[in-house]
Amino acid sequence: MAKLQRSFFQWAKAVNIRSCIVLLLGMLCSIKGFAKELETQESLKQVVYDFLAPQLSEMKASRTEIAVGRIDPRLKLAKCEQPLEVGFLGKKNLFGKVNIRLNCSQPRWGMFIPTQIKVFEYVVISQVSLPRRSVIAASQLALREVETSALNYTFFREIAQVAGTTSTRAIQANHIVYTNMVKASAAIRKGDSLIIKAIAGSLAVRVKGQALQEGAIGEQIQVRNDKSRRIIRAIVVGPGQVEVPM
Which residues contact 193 (CB under 8 A, 6 or more apart)? Predict the structure, then answer.
């Protein structure tokens, strides 16, 4: 009888152990299944990157960098059952600090992720120091890659855009040439002799004159008609040539 009792207790103990193991495995599976139902930081960051990367690839930049901001690890968001809606929060910029908005329709939740975008381009720099009113030669210029998303002024991307212009201020060596640092070089200097062309319909009359101001092509300056001594305003169209539309 005692032997039978011992066998019964051993069987009951084994059954309880097996039950505990089954229960524990069930709990682990439930926890694992629940974890799959949450969005991860990596998946959310990848959504932001996939949204920005194609847009940045269309830019004429030498390279770009995307740094997706920190997402609070305590944030628990249910896995979105529909594709996430992605857009800019506020003003759309493809450079500097931006906020990317993520919206889920099922289940409904929303958030925004701060992101830093860096854009690098080749811009025109001066290889030498240039005093004010210097006519800039192409040999004095070069291209250098810089982070243009950090610049506050407009710049030039091609040497040909700067070569032949005149500096409006001193430019230091190895500095970026901004658009407000140069102007088109004068095609006509004050005191130059020139040809004044007056146009009226299909008729054109040419007379000799003198420049009373200097001016670049496209600028309007004062000139004096040598014959009539009359002072008029004319548009510079080339070296030693101005036009007066009638």
Answer: 208, 209, 210, 211, 240
